Amino acid sequence: MDSILVRGGRRLQGEVVVSGSKNSALPVLISSLLTAEPCFYQNIPDLKDVHTTLRLLTGLGVKIKRESHSGKPSQLSLRADSITELKAPYDLVKTMRASFLVLGPLLSRFGQATVSTPGGCAIGTRPVNLHLKGLTQMGASIELVHGYVQARAKRLYGTRIYLDLPSVGATENLMMAATLAKGTTVIENAAKEPEVTELASVLNKMGAKIDKPGSDTVTIEGVDVLGGVSHCLIADRIEAGTYLVAAALTDGEVVVRGARSDHLDSFLMKLKETGVTVSDEGNAIKVKGSGRGKSVDIVTLPHPGFPTDLQAQMMALMAVADGVSVITENIFENRFMHAQELKRMGGNIRLEGKRAIVKGVQSLSGATVMATDLRASVSLILAGLVAKGVTEILRVYHLDRGYEHIEQKLSGLGADIERLKH
Ligand code: UD1
To answer: Are residues 265 and 206 in the same domain?
Structure first.
């Protein structure tokens, strides 16, 4: 298994280009199941989760053509005109929970679907009750058999659905299902993340009638059939935020090209509060460090609140900031696994339920550390960038799920980082 070695102490400088959004790519690729016509997508990142999605879709009978010269994703054509299988197997759903999103599209277009339940994961229990409740309200009959959700519905019917939580996945699944339902579906307390809006705009290009995506209440008027689409994906706001934190941590000066400040509002406000200079340069955001940053408190919330996917990275920044920071994680119940590893690097962090109290230290010291999820892994790399000596991060397969060419991108900015092939 590969590991990553970081020798700390370099100030990051220069420009880095953000890849296409992982959390957009997964539902958008899955939405191709809703039509028999070809769908063409650009700016698809070359990531493990994208490969898993393509494997899942291939297994269902979707024809996939890579259009880029390198043979890697980036430009892909998908065509779901001869679906042969209506089942998403356990081995794929357990590797990547977003696989569960095939349920809505398969059910609404083909009248049935069998999808493995995802089970728990490293950051929390992450149930799918809201997905299932919504589909049931739309008229699906749902049974749980041998760990699989078996769903049937001759036709789904539009209805009013209230989500107890603004779940990103449930909003996406139900929105996709509703595009081909009979009548109008209203999703109340819907998720407002940019990736939800992006999916809706792809679906609307395919002929769906989705009104006010990105707001609390989304209305979907069902249509009989959807057509093909050509779409270029938005940049990954979480990847962008990660490089902005890297610049702040190393007192660097970095331009993150492709980053959109309208997608990162609450995060950028917090970053500015630490003392760094943040400037919006049109299609890029620039961060300039100003010595040791100040501690700030962070509370993760659904969008437009502070994103949980940037909490671990901010904890690395707070670990060396001046003062005490209270970080409250409201979205996932077990998302502080990185804290223990940051402590091994000399961080002064105390966990109290869903709060982490981080007292900034003057410096961290490199260590061998192990990550348990994607964002935890990257926070350890960030910590390694400022730690004294060498940090070795084990289990980097988590990282490969969500960060395209991270070693190349960071070394392009001057970091001393390499991947060790074991
Ligand atoms: C998506 C993102 C993930 C991000 C998360 C929150 C993708 C592929 N992943 O995950 O990176 O961290 O949004 O911004 O886009 N919940 C329920 N019942 C449900 C569904 C969710 O209780 O039926 C709970 C979850 O356990 C969690 C919270 O709601 O505590 C938020 O989950 P959700 O918004 O659904 O996250 P995902 O779509 O899984």
So the answer is: no
User: For residue 32, what are the domain limits?
Assistant: 22-232
Q: What's 253's domain CATH number?
A: 3.65.10.10
Closest residue to atom 8 of ligand 1, CA basis: 23
* pLDDT tens column, 270-307: 999 999 999 999 999 999 998 999 999 999 999 999 99
Domain count, the chain: 2
154, 289: one domain = no
- pLDDT confidence of residue 118: 87
Ligand 1 atom having least distance to the Cα of 168? 34
What's the gap between Cα 362 and its chain centre? Answer: 32
Looking at 194, 215, 232, the residue that finishes a domain is 232
Q: Is residue 28 helix, strand or coil?
A: helix
Q: Check pLDDT > 80 for residue 69.
A: no
199, 232, 265 — which closes off a domain? 232
Q: Say if residue 97 is in the same domain as residue 193.
A: yes
pLDDT, one tens digit per residue, over 193-231 is 999 999 999 999 999 999 999 999 999 999 999 999 999
pLDDT tens-digit series, residues 26-61: 999 999 999 999 999 999 999 999 999 999 999 999
Q: Are residues 42 and 149 in the same domain?
A: yes
Residue 41 φ then ψ, to 5°? -125, 140
Does the beta carbon of 120 sit less than 6 angstroms from any atom of ligand 1?
no
* Domain shared by 313 and 272, yes or no: yes
Please identify every residue annotated as catalytic. 121
Q: Looking at the structure, do residues 106 and 226 belong to the same domain, yes or no?
A: yes
Nearest residue (CA) to ligand 1, atom 33: 167
Residues in contact with 269: Cβ distance below 8 Å, sequence separation at least 6, in sequence order: none
Q: Is 86 in the pocket of ligand 1 (CB under 6 A)?
A: no
Q: How confident is the model at residue 72 (pLDDT cuts 50, 70, 90)?
A: low
CB 59 less than 6 A from any atom of ligand 1: no
- Residue to substitute in 50, 52, 130, 168 for testing ligand 1 pocket (most ligand atoms within 8 angstroms of CB): 168
Average pLDDT over residues 106-120: 92
Best CA proximity match to 18, nearest among 276, 264, 252, 265: 264
Query: Where do the DSSP E strands lie in 330-385?
Result: 348-352, 355-359, 368-370
Q: How many angstroms separate the CA atoms of 276 and 293, rounded?
A: 7
